[in-house]
Amino acid sequence: MPLTRATLTDVSHSAGDPAQKVVQVLFNPTDLSFDRGSHYASMPVPGLAMPILQYIRGESDALHLELFLDQTDNGSDIEADINKIETFIQVDGLLHAPPVVEFSWARFTFTGVITSVREKMTLFSEDGRRLRARLSLSFKSYKSAEVQLRELKLSSPDRSHSRVLREGETLAHLAYEVYGDPRMWRPIALANGITRPRFIEPGTPLWIPAL
Length: 211
Fold this sequence. Notes:
The chain is α+β, with helices and mostly antiparallel strands. 15% of the residues lie in helices and 36% in strands. The protein has helices at 79-86, 145-152, 171-179, 185-191; strands spanning 7-10, 22-24, 32-35, 38-43, 52-58, 62-70, 101-105, 108-124, 130-141, 161-164, 205-208.
C-alpha cells in the first residue's frame, strides 16, 4: 500500500490560483493532539454556596503536531523546507492576514490558522548547514460565521441577541426588559466584558446572553 503523505494547503485561495500554496511534508507526524473547550462566565448569586456558570461561547479547537525535516541524504540545508511551512504564518498581501490552512492526512482533515511554529535544530554539518530539525506546529480551527450558524441547528428557543444601549438606559433596564428582573444585569456585563456598568456610553452595542 503506497505511503500517503500529509499535506498543508492554503484554502484562502482557490485551487489553480497562482497565489495558493501547497506543501507536502517530508515525513508524516507520529502523533496529533487536540485541545477543545468552552468559555463560561461565573455569576455569584447571594445565598448560594457557589456561583452559577453561564455558557458564553465555544473556544476554537486546537491541533498540535510535530514535523520532522531531514536532508542528511543529500547534505542540503533544510532552510528551504522550513521557509515553505513558515509562509503559512506570514501575512498574505491579498488577504492582509495569514491564510486559512487545511492539514490533511489520509481521511483526516483540520482547517484553521497556524498560530505558532517552533523550530528545534537537531543536526548540523561540519560547515554549519542545518541538516535535520523538528517543527512544532499549533493550529486554531477556523469556520466562517455563516458555517457556524448553519451547524448550530438550535432546537430550543434562545433569547440571546444584540442590542444598542439607548440614551438614559442602564444594564438594569435591559435586564428587566429581557429577563423581567433588573437584578440580572450582571450576566450582560460579564458577556460584554464590562467592569464599570455605570459608565457605558449610549450607542454601545451589547450582546444579551440567553439564561
